[in-house]
């Protein structure tokens, strides 16, 4: 990473330029590792603002998350951000992980409560000696490492466990008060949901950047499962465009990319500070959307 480049995502977001970022997950095997690094090499020439690496349920990918973000920091021009969760860790273990990330050259963290190891929608149990809320994790990171930049998650239609959209917005305010500098949303299904989230946040005084998350529909069954896991429904207008193509995977994929591109255009036109692409460790669809947007970004 160039020494002239700011090491904190908050600084990059604060200069007024649009942010474009990519998310990866730790692969399970050698073939997945090869796919991941091929995708990273294909996306690096696009010069994203940052890239993020996820954390498995229950802290199951801790070592791989640290290793991948560290390698990105050492061997590429990309600015990495590591996900970190409350679930499955004590405060002392979180302290140790933060030290590992610092030693690996990682200066940006996305602080999350995390899904239960048994999956979204099941009971979430606080680890003994651990933390209950993402806002507590933000506070711990800020207390122990003032030099780290901390981001958090936000939810366009509210977190599936939230009592209401207003209660969900108050949770985001608590993360902001704890020291978070920006937020990245769960995948946006409708632009209006994102803009509603931003307005609820602003009404509560949350003025940090909120970056919408983008995931194109490449496989209808897979996308339906992911939407269901987040406690939501596929928008009717999207279903109407995709369902007639269900027997033609190539047509589904092409239409999914078109829908995502249109969504990105609407989000940017409405004032979104950038876009965060959930790549699923593949680069092709992200590059196609990027190219379609390139004349307007």
Task: List key phrases describing it.
297 residues, single chain, 11 helices, TIM Barrel, alpha/beta, 8 strands, 8-stranded parallel beta barrel
Task: Summarize the structure in short.
The chain has about 300 residues and is of the alpha/beta class. It contains 11 helices and 8 strands.
Main pleated-sheet profile: 8 strands, parallel, barrel
Q: Low-confidence runs (pLDDT<50, min 5 residues)? A: 1-5
Count the DSSP helices.
11
CATH architecture: Alpha-Beta Barrel
Strand content: 5-15%
Percent range for helical residues?
40-55%
Radius of gyration: 18 Å
Biggest sheet: strand arrangement = 1-2-3-4-5-6-7-8
The total strand number stands at: 8
Question: Could you please describe the fold and organization of this structure?
Answer:
α3 (62-75) runs parallel beside α4 (91-103) and α5 packs parallel to α6. It is globular and about 50 Å long. The protein is of the alpha/beta class and 297 residues long. The protein has an 8-stranded parallel beta barrel, surrounded by 5 helices. Mean pLDDT is 91; it is low at 1-5. Helix content is 44%, strand content 14%. It has one domain: TIM Barrel, CATH 3.20.20. The chain has helices spanning 9-13, 30-43, 62-75, 91-103, 134-144, 165-178, 191-203, 220-229, 236-242, 249-269, 284-293, and strands at 19-24, 50-53, 80-85, 108-112, 149-154, 182-187, 210-214, 274-278.
């Amino acid at each position: 990473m160039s020494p002239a480049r700011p090491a904190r995502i908050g600084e990059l977001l604060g200069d007024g330029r649009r942010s474009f970022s990519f998310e990866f997950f730790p692969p399970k095997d050698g073939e997945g590792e090869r796919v991941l690094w091929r995708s990273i090499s294909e996306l690096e020439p696009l010069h994203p603002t940052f890239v993020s690496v996820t954390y498995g349920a229950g802290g199951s990918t801790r070592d791989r998350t640290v290793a991948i973000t560290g390698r990105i920091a050492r061997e590429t021009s990309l600015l990495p951000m590591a996900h970190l969760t409350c679930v499955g860790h004590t405060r002392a273990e979180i302290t140790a992980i933060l030290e590992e990330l610092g030693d690996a050259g990682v200066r940006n963290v996305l602080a999350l409560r995390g899904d239960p190891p048994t999956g979204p929608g099941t009971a979430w149990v606080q680890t003994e000696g651990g933390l209950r809320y993402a806002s507590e994790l933000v506070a711990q990171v800020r207390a122990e490492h003032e030099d780290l930049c901390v981001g958090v998650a936000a939810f366009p239609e509210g977190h599936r466990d939230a009592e209401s959209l207003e209660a969900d917005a108050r949770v985001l305010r608590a993360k902001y008060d704890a020291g978070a500098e920006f937020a990245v949303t769960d995948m946006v299904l409708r632009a209006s949901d994102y803009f509603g989230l931003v307005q609820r946040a602003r009404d509560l005084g949350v003025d940090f950047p909120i970056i919408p998350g983008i995931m194109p529909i490449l496989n209808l069954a897979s996308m339906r499962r992911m939407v269901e896991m987040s406690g939501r429904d596929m928008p009717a207008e999207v279903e109407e465009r995709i369902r007639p193509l269900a027997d033609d995977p190539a047509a589904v994929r092409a239409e999914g990319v078109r829908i995502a591109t249109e969504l990105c255009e609407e989000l940017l036109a409405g004032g979104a500070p950038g876009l965060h692409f959930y790549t699923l460790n593949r680069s092709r669809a992200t590059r196609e959307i990027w190219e379609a947007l390139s004349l307007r970004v």
